[in-house]
């Protein structure tokens, strides 16, 4: 008896589901993403700037001009992003540091000066940072040497400078990384973990 009742229920449910799939069924309107949602902003930044060296360079060039002030805010990491970058308790420690020191509502400027039209980009994987070879030590601040042990494997971190043409000095930044399908910025992370 139970088997017959269950079969009847399944047949009725399947029949109703198939009836709703006919040609005359109206499609529900597509959901419109809200610009105010952080995940939407981050995913749009991820698609505009792919997880490639060229994507990183395009993002850094867009930051250099300062034409999109909201672009910096779209680099704000989420809790899941901290967990994707740092090992164990270092993730929560970094999130606490950045929430109070960087992403605290103050204006953040990453733009270069108008005369600083050149972009110089350096990169290293988390494994290269952990090994701390000559190339990495020449291109990254010394604080990264302590940071290496706290980074998850498989990451590529970027350091960059905005300089005047032909000059090697300028405004220097670091800590750009792509995780969870979008770019995030965590500068001077060794300070976050040392606090």
From TrEMBL:
Keywords: Signal
Region (Disordered): 23-51
Presence of keyword Signal: yes
Low complexity bias (residue ranges): 28-48
Signal sequence bounds: 1-19
Protein name, per record: Lipoprotein
Species of provenance: Dactylosporangium roseum
Lineage of producing organism: Bacteria, Bacillati, Actinomycetota, Actinomycetes, Micromonosporales
């Amino acid at each position: 008896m139970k088997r017959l009742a269950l079969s009847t229920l399944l047949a009725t449910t399947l029949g109703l589901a198939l009836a709703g799939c006919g040609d005359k069924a109206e499609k529900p309107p597509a959901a419109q993403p809200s610009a105010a949602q952080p995940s939407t902003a981050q995913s749009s930044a991820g698609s505009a700037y792919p997880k490639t060296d060229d994507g990183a360079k395009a993002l850094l060039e867009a930051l250099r001009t300062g034409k999109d002030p909201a672009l910096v805010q779209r680099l704000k990491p989420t809790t899941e992003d901290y967990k994707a970058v740092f090992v164990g308790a270092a993730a929560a420690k970094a999130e606490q540091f950045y929430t109070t020191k960087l992403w605290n509502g103050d204006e953040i400027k990453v733009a270069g000066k108008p005369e600083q039209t050149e972009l110089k980009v350096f990169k290293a994987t988390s494994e290269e940072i952990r090994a701390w070879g000559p190339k990495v030590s020449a291109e990254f601040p010394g604080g990264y040497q302590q940071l290496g042990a706290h980074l998850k494997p498989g990451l590529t971190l970027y350091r960059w400078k905005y300089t005047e043409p032909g000059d090697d000095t300028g405004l220097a930044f670091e800590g750009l990384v792509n995780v969870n399908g979008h770019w995030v910025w965590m500068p001077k992370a060794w300070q976050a973990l040392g606090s």
